[in-house]
Amino acid sequence: MITPLPASNQPVITWKTSHGSIRIVPGRGRVLGMEISGHESLWTPAQNSAEWNLGGERLWIGPEADWHWLRLGEPDFAFYQVPPALDPDIWSVEQLRDGFFSGSLEVEVRSPHRDAHLKVRLTRSFELLPVEDLAAPASGIALRTTTGMEILDGTHGQPVDLWSLLQIRSGGSLLIPSVGHALPRDYFSPAPASEFSVHPTYTEIHIRCIAMFKLGLAAAHSAGRIAYARPVPGGHLILSRSFPVYPDLFYCDSPLDALDTQGDALQFFCDDGSFGGFGEMEHRSPALRCGVGPQSFTEVATTRLLLLSDADFTDWKTQWINPTSL
Alpha-carbon Rg of the chain, whole angstroms? Predict the structure, then answer.
C-alpha cells in the first residue's frame, strides 16, 4: 500500500504480515512505523514535518560534536543544526519489492566550528524476516537492517561513525543488558535519579518525558542489544534491537565535556515535551578515520516487535536482562 508523506513528498510503503505491518519511506531510507495488533511502536509527530527528520527510525552520521553542534561547550539546542545533507536526506532507491528495500545516499558534511569536512557514501537495506526469526512465544514482526558506510573524501584523520536510532513513544522503560559494572554517563544535565536505575546485569531507563536527558554506555559494557517495553491493553509491547559491538575498537561520539574520551556505543535520549514528547534508543558503530586504516564498514542489526501477555513478559524479561542469554 502506498500513501503520500506530505512533508517530503515521498511515498510511504506498507509491508503487511499476519501479525502486523512495517511502514517504510524508500526515498528517505527510513522506517516510519512498526505495529502489531493495532499497537504502534514508533513515535512520529502529530503533523508531518521534515524538521530534524523527526519520527520513526533513521540513520545519521557522527560525531555529533563535529557536524551538528554549531558551537562546543554547554549543550544548548539554540546552537544545534542537522546538516542539510542529512535532513532532508533524499536516497537513491536501488531495489524495492514486497519485504525488501535497498538504497544509497552520498553525504557531504562540514564542521561549523573547525576546519573539517567529509564525503561518505551510505547504503541501507531493510528485509522483512520470517516470523520464525522471532524466537519468542508471541506474535510479532522482525526486520533486518544492513547499513554500510564508505569514506570518499575528507580531512585526513577525521573520524566518522554510523548513528542509528529508533524514536519511541512515552510510557515504557528501556531495558539494557550490561557486561561488568556499567554506569551510564550524562550528555546534558544529569538525568534525574528517578528516571533510571543501574542493576548488576542491566540498566533500566524510564521514558516518561517529564525531564530531558541523554545517557551513554560504552561498548565494553554493552551486550549488543536494547529493548523498550511499554504496557498496552492485553500485555506488553516489546521493541528490541540487536547489533554488533566492538569493545576493542575506537568509538568517536562522546559528551561535549568529554570529547577526548572513548565514545559510547549505546545512547538513550528522553525528551521533556520540547520536541514533541518521545524517547530514543540509539546505537553507534565503531569509527572510521579518513585516510587512515579501513575506509568502509558494514553492520547488520535486527529489530523485533513482540506483543507479550503479562505472564510471558515476566519470563521474557528474566531472560533479556541476563547478558549471557538469548
Answer: 19
pTM over 0.90: yes
pLDDT tens string 122-162: 999 999 998 665 555 557 899 999 999 999 999 999 999 99
Q: Report d(CA 131, CA 138) in Å as an integer.
A: 10
Tell me the CATH number at 55. Answer: 2.70.98.10
Per the CB < 8 A criterion, the answer to whether 35 and 19 are in contact is: no
Task: Tell the residue number behind the cell numbers 558503530, with chain if given.
Answer: 285
pLDDT at 109 over 80: yes
Domain assignment of residue 207, given as a range: 2-320
| 14 domain-assigned | yes
Task: Determine, yes or no, domain membership for 325.
Answer: no
Buried b / exposed e along 235-270 (16+ C-beta atoms within 10 A): bbbbbbbbbebeeeeebbbbbbeeeeeebbbbbbbb
CA-based angle 92:96:102, to the nearest 5?
Answer: 55
Total domains in the fold of the chain: 1
Within-domain flag for 23: yes
* Residue 223 CB neighbour total at 10 angstroms: 22
DSSP code at position 80: B
69 is a domain residue: yes
Q: How many CB atoms lie within 10 A of CB 34?
A: 27
